[in-house]
């Protein structure tokens, strides 16, 4: 609460008072008077500040609006700037002379305009407005936590920091494609059926003649082809083609592997954007679009439809998928604690108060018998006392008592040589008795010394700091979860439980911590093999539900799956056997050049010479080449079964998919 | 232009801002009064040094200068020439209340202190950055300042009123402390000072009264605000207080339970496969470990032997007897 300025002021004033109230006051009375005056002023300011703080704090209200295109919205669009307007109102009767407001910007986002900070005076009933602009490059989520308020007196002697929590999640929908984007890039067929319709060589209610067949009872008379009937001398019925729209099913990967990356630049964000573009373009031509989201464990389906409501719902699902946080995986608890502690300190400053979040001294003491080696003292003590007891027994029964006396004499001689020599009879006697007992029971003394030095290690700064932070975080988690007090001790003792809770805490607040990509054995941790099975099942289900030959667009990170992709290949083969079309869109890492870039005129470009002192570069090159090779392999395997594989950022996937839709339409039309 | 120069230029521009200028004038006037009252006291240094320190603090944004200025004022009151040239005469404290020169000096000092602190809030820095060091390093922004637009016209008169009020309060406090002595023979245990008391006892009496008074004010103030805080705490704070109190009460028991729980959990975990590494040659830790193992084996063997010998001798001697 006191700033350094406040501390120095009160310290000097008290020193002046204490000096002045002794002899100095008789020489220079101005000194104690000045000291007393400063103390009186300090106490007055302190009381005023504390009273204002307590009176005003519960009466501060925060409201937030997200504006896009000048109006308040509940969801925002990616790639377009939105304005965040935060209104802070002091509803109490007292004013706050100096307050610094800071609206906590969503984690990992940069402010594009305006300022989320404001220094102001909070007058009763007068709202204060903070306005700034944010922009997200891809679908996801803006998580607003609340407003930090730092209050101070006018002189800066006292300050307090509070965080007014007003959490709000704003979904960022994938960008809206403009009119130009909705059109196909090139027109391949001149005679197209009406938008969204294509003819199917299956009898239906279309307008184009498909076939003539023999009349069957029940056929409507208007369908009878009279000329043909007259020519054949029997009733012939006309059959028309069926007009159905192209159905596109999007399969979006939302597994851990595509969630990695900085906020707004994750692979899943890019995939969601691509999916959104496809969906909007298809919806513009009144084709049906469905969505299946899948991860390592399950999938959910949004059945194909073409209404506007459906499109918005689909975009919302894409945004939800893009907002998912990666699981940081098994991490060292200290690492997580280092990430969570500043966040908790920022957002729950009042919960760090030592009055309510106590740290007793006993917390830091290290118990001796929690170490496995401490148990060695037990047999030592036990053996020694047993030995003494045996000697005493010998002496008591009057049999070979010499050994006992020799031991006692030996203990006395050591006691005399090491005991502290003090003045006075009683102090000397006390030191003699204490030293004698200590030497006689030397294993217990040794154990006591070890107990002390082992326990005191807990107060050393590094360990004490870690434990203090851990206790504070544990208590805060228990308070937030409304858990039992015993849970605090569990978090203190159980690393796994604390790591899990911290991970949840970070995920709740949408804080990303850099994931560890490789485990201790050097294996890539985010391969997510099981998603191939889930995806295969989803494709098979889609094939089972399909009415017509459809287009399946798989937006997934499949390059790292290796041999685990076999179930997916089977499913794709099944889809192809039913004449469905399959396209795979793979997110391409930003820092990996496409394979074509490494070749010039079909020949590999010579890499710059690698020198031994550049291990980082070597590893990067190896990883890059490995990724390119895995992608090439995947593409070849897919091509072999008739599926197309394209890259999300390098190729133009939306255009390719639209071309494919046109081709499907055209193929059906030409039949 | 270097960053420091740029900062200094901004600082001076802020000082010259018309809304801030009034505080500058007040600070300068207070320093002038300090200087004059020092001169009235009969020493040029007593006026010059504190005024110079104050001016340097004003010009160079010295955060410690206001406190140093107060210390200088006090120093030159005790030693008008800065060094103990001669023993200053003693004054009876009963005749030192509401003296004009003291009033002038202390009023000026208080006005200077209050105005200079407010000026720093407008031009230099108000609130310290209390975040963790690494967070602070990662996000270094300009210092937070009070907006000059928020300066109201009534602030200067209010400042003067506060200074006057605390000046009178200080004088009254000194009056009470110098005129009252502790006397445990009476009830209440203090009375007005009459006659010539032992000087040492007067000093002790003043110190104790000051300590008691300050302690009383702080204790009851703290108590009042603590109760206020309890009344106004939010849900999380209340939950935390309850949980923490419960934890403090059951800490030892819970620690024991959790220790055994963790032990059981670790025992239940599958044992990782033991990877045997080839050792080319025995290293120092290996040697130490071998010695340790040998000692442990020896100790256990000796212990068992001791038990056997003791038991055996007891039986044998029993038989002999």
List keywords for this structure.
heterodimer, A: 671 residues, alpha/beta, Rossmann fold, six-stranded mixed beta sheet, five-stranded antiparallel beta sheet, B: 321 residues, mainly alpha, two-stranded antiparallel sheet
What does this structure look like?
Chain A is α/β, with parallel strands linked by helices and 671 residues long. Chain A is built from 18 helices and 20 strands. Chain A has helices at residues 4-27, 30-56, 179-182, 226-232, 267-284, 308-322, 333-347, 377-396, 402-418, 425-440, 442-456, 461-481, 486-493, 495-508, 530-545, 566-577, 615-640, 653-670, and strands at residues 60-68, 71-72, 75-77, 82-90, 96-103, 111-114, 117-122, 128-134, 140-152, 159-173, 198-214, 236-244, 247-253, 288-294, 299-305, 551-555, 581-586, 599-600, 603-604, 644-647. Chain B is mostly helical and 321 residues long. Chain B has 10 helices and 2 strands, in the order αααααααββααα. In chain B, a hairpin with a 7-residue loop joins strand 1 (180-182) and strand 2. Chain B starts with a helix and ends with a helix. At the A-B interface, helix 1, helix 2, strand 5, strand 7 and helix 7 of A face helix 4, helix 5, helix 7, helix 8 and helix 9 of B.
Topology record:
The complex is a heterodimer of chains A (671) and B (321).
Chain A: H1 4-27, H2 30-56, E1 60-68, E2 71-72, E3 75-77, E4 82-90, E5 96-103, E6 111-114, E7 117-122, E8 128-134, E9 140-152, E10 159-173, H3 179-182, E11 198-214, H4 226-232, E12 236-244, E13 247-253, H5 267-284, E14 288-294, E15 299-305, H6 308-322, H7 333-347, H8 377-396, H9 402-418, H10 425-440, H11 442-456, H12 461-481, H13 486-493, H14 495-508, H15 530-545, E16 551-555, H16 566-577, E17 581-586, E18 599-600, E19 603-604, H17 615-640, E20 644-647, H18 653-670
Parallel strand pairs in A: 3-10, 13-14, 13-16, 16-17, 17-20
Antiparallel strand pairs in A: 1-2, 1-4, 4-8, 5-7, 5-9, 6-8, 9-10, 11-12, 14-15, 18-19
Helix pairs in contact in A: 1-2, 5-6, 5-18, 7-12, 7-14, 8-9, 8-11, 9-10, 12-13, 13-14, 15-16
Chain B: H1 3-15, H2 18-40, H3 44-60, H4 65-78, H5 100-123, H6 133-138, H7 155-179, E1 180-182, E2 190-192, H8 199-232, H9 235-268, H10 284-320
Antiparallel strand pairs in B: 1-2
Helix pairs in contact in B: 2-3, 2-5, 3-4, 4-5, 5-7
């Amino acid at each position: 609460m006191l700033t350094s300025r406040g501390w120095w002021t009160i310290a000097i004033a008290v020193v002046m008072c204490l000096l002045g109230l002794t002899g100095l006051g008789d020489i220079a009375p101005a000194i104690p008077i000045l000291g007393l005056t400063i103390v009186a002023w300090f106490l007055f300011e302190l009381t005023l500040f504390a009273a204002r703080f307590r009176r005003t704090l519960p009466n501060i209200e925060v409201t937030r609006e997200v504006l896009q295109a000048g109006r308040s919205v509940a969801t925002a669009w990616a790639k377009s700037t939105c304005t965040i307007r935060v209104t802070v109102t002091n509803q109490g009767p007292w004013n706050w002379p100096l307050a610094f407001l800071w609206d906590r910007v969503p984690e990992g986002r940069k402010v594009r305009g305006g300022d989320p900070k404001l220094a102001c005076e909070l007058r009763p009933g007068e709202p204060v407005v903070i306005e700034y602009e944010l922009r997200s490059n891809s679908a996801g989520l803006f998580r607003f936590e609340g407003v930090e308020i730092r209050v101070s007196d006018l002189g800066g002697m006292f300050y307090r920091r509070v965080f007014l929590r007003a959490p709000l999640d704003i979904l960022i929908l994938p960008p809206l494609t403009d009119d130009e984007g909705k059109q196909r890039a090139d027109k391949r067929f001149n005679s197209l059926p009406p938008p969204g319709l294509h003819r199917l060589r299956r009898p239906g209610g279309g307008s184009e003649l498909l076939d003539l067949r023999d009349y069957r009872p029940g056929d409507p008379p208007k369908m009878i082809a009279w000329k043909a009937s007259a020519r054949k001398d029997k009733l012939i019925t006309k059959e028309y083609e069926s007009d159905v729209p192209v159905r596109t099913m999007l399969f979006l990967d939302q597994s851990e592997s595509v969630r990695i990356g900085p906020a707004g630049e994750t692979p899943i964000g890019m995939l969601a954007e691509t999916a959104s573009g496809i969906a909007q373009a298809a919806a513009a031509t009144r084709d049906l679009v469905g969505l299946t989201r899948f991860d390592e464990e399950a999938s959910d389906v949004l059945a194909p439809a073409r209404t506007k409501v459906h499109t918005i719902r689909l975009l919302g699902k894409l945004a939800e998928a893009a907002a998912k946080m990666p699981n940081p995986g098994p991490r060292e608890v200290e690492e997580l604690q280092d990430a969570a502690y500043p966040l908790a300190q920022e957002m729950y400053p009042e919960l760090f108060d030592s009055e309510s979040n106590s740290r007793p001294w006993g917390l830091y003491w290290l118990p001796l018998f929690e170490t496995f080696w401490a148990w060695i003292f037990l047999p030592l003590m036990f053996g020694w006392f047993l030995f003494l007891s045996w000697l005493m027994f010998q002496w008591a029964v009057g049999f070979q008592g010499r050994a006992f006396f020799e031991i006692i004499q030996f203990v006395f001689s050591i006691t005399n040589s090491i005991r502290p020599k003090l003045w006075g009879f009683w102090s000397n006697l006390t030191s003699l008795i204490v030293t004698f007992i200590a030497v006689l029971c030397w294993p217990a003394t040794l154990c006591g010394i070890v107990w002390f030095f082992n326990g005191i290690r807990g107060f050393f700064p590094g360990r004490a700091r870690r434990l203090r932070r851990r206790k504070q975080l544990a208590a805060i988690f228990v308070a937030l979860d409304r858990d039992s007090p015993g849970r605090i001790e569990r978090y203190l003792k159980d690393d796994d439980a604390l790591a899990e809770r911290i991970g949840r805490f970070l995920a709740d607040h949408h804080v990303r911590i850099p994931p560890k990509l490789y485990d201790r054995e050097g294996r890539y941790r985010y391969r997510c093999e099981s998603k191939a099975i889930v995806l295969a099942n989803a494709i098979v289900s889609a094939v089972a539900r399909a009415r017509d030959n459809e287009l399946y667009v798989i937006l997934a990170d499949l390059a790292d799956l290796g041999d685990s992709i076999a179930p997916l290949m089977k499913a794709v083969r099944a889809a192809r056997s039913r004449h469905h079309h399959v396209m795979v869109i793979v997110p391409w890492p930003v820092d990996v050049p496409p394979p074509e870039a490494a070749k010039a005129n079909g020949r590999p470009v010579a890499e710059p010479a690698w020198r031994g002192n550049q291990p980082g570069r070597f590893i990067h090159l190896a990883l890059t080449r490995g990724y390119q090779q895995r992608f090439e392999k995947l593409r070849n395997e897919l091509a072999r079964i008739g599926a197309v594989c394209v890259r999300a950022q390098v190729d133009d996937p939306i255009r390719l998919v639209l071309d494919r839709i046109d081709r499907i339409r055209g193929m059906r039309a030409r039949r | 232009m270097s960053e420091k120069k740029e900062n200094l230029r901004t600082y001076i521009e802020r000082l010259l801002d018309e809304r801030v200028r009034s505080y500058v004038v007040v600070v300068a006037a207070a320093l002038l009064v300090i200087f004059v009252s020092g001169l009235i006291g009969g020493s040029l240094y007593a006026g010059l040094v504190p005024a110079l320190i104050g001016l340097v603090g004003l010009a160079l944004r010295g955060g410690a200068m206001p406190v140093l200025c107060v210390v200088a004022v006090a120093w030159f009151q005790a030693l008008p020439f800065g060094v103990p040239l001669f023993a200053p005469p003693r004054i009876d404290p009963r005749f030192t209340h509401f003296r004009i020169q003291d009033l002038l000096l202390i009023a000026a000092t208080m006005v200077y202190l209050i105005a200079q602190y407010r000026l720093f809030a407008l031009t230099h820095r108000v609130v310290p950055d209390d975040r963790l060091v690494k967070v602070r390093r990662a996000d270094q922004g300009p210092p937070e300042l009070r907006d000059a637009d928020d300066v109201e016209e009534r602030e200067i008169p209010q400042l003067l009123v506060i200074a006057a009020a605390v000046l009178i309060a200080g004088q009254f406090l000194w009056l009470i402390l110098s005129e009252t002595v502790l006397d445990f023979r009476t009830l209440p245990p203090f009375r007005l000072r009459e006659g010539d008391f032992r000087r040492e006892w007067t000093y002790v009496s003043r110190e104790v009264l000051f300590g008691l008074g300050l302690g009383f004010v702080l204790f009851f103030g703290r108590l009042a605000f603590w109760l206020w805080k309890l009344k106004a705490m939010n849900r999380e704070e209340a939950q935390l207080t309850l949980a923490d109190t419960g934890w403090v009460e059951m800490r030892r028991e819970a620690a024991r339970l959790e220790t055994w729980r963790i032990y059981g959990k670790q025992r239940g975990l599958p044992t990782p496969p033991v990877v045997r590494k080839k050792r080319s040659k025995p290293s120092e830790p290996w040697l130490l470990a071998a010695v340790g193992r040998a000692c442990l084996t020896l100790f256990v063997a000796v212990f068992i032997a001791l038990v056997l010998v003791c038991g055996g001798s007891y039986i044998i001697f029993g038989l002999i007897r």
